[in-house]
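User: My instructor asked us to take a sequence, write out its structure as C-alpha cells, and then describe one feature of it. I'm not sure where to start. Here is the sequence I was given:
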Amino acid sequence: MDNDTPVAGIELGGTKAIAVRGCGMTVTEMRSFPTTTPDETLGQVIDVLAQWDAEEALAAIGIASFGPIRVATDAPDFGSILATPKPGWANTPVLGPVAERFACPIALDTDVNAAAMAEHAIGAAQGCSNTIYITIGTGLGAGILLDGKPVHGLLHPEAGHIRMRRAAGDDFAGVCPFHGDCAEGLLSGPALLARLPTHPGELAEDDPAWGPVGRDLAEMLAQLILTFSPQRIVIGGGVTNRQPHLLDKARAHIPQILAGYLTDIDAARLAYMICSPLLGDEAGPAGALALALKALAENR
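Assistant: Let's start with the prediction itself. The C-alpha cells for your sequence are:
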C-alpha cells in the first residue's frame, strides 16, 4: 500500500455526505455537507474533489454510498441508488456524475463494505480474513468481507433487513417501512425512539426497557456468526456510540441463543470478537480512500 498516493473519496450517507482526501489510507482533509437533494449534495462534494484535484492530481477516487445501490459492474444501472426510503434518492446515479468529472480510476461500494475494508486494513479487524462491519444509526447496514474481499453477488449484503426470532412477550411492531420488525426496524435510531419509554439518551443503562433491544441485537449477531463465521464483528454508528452498554447486553445473550452449539464461543471470545471501530467516525471516510486505492490497484 502506497502511503504517499494522493487519493480522494466520497462517503455518501443518508444524513451527511463527506468529501475526504488522503495520502494512501491516511486522511488529510475532510469536508462535510448535509445530504439534501441528489443534485445539490453530489454537486457539493464533486466541487470539493475538483478543487483538490486542481491542487494535486488525484490518482483515484473511491465512493462509499448508502444503499441499496447497484454494485454489479455489468449491470446497466451500475452505481445507482435503488429503492430507498430516502426521499428523492431512488434510482439516482451516484457513480455517473463523478465519472463525468474525473478521468482517474473510480471504485464504488456500499458505505459499510468500505468501512469494513478500512477496519480490516488499518483498524480493529486487522488480520481477520472474515470481517463484518455493522453501523446502527438512522438505518442499520452490514458490510461483510470474506477472505478479505467485500461480498457482492446478486446485490450486496442487506443484513439490516433480516427477520429475527423475537423474545417472548415483545410485541413491538418495528418501524421499517418495508418489513416492520426486521433488524433495522427494531434496532435503528428511529426504532429506539419508538419502542423505548423515553429518549434513548435519557434512559438509564440498567432500565429494563433496554432488555429486548439487547436481545434483538444478540439475535442478529448470532445469525451472522453462524452464517459467515467472522473472526471480528465491528459495530459502529450513532446508536452504539451513544449506548455502548448495548454491546455488553448483546454479548451476554449470545451464548444462550447459540444454545451450546459453538462451544468455543464463550464470554472471552465474544469480548474479543464483537467490538467498536478502532477508526471511530473515520471508518467510513477511510473506507472511501481504501476503495480509491483498490481502483488504482485494479487499473494498474
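For the description part of your assignment, you could build on this observation: The domain at 6-115+281-299 is CATH 3.30.420.40 (Nucleotidyltransferase; domain 5). Try explaining in your own words what that tells you about the chain.
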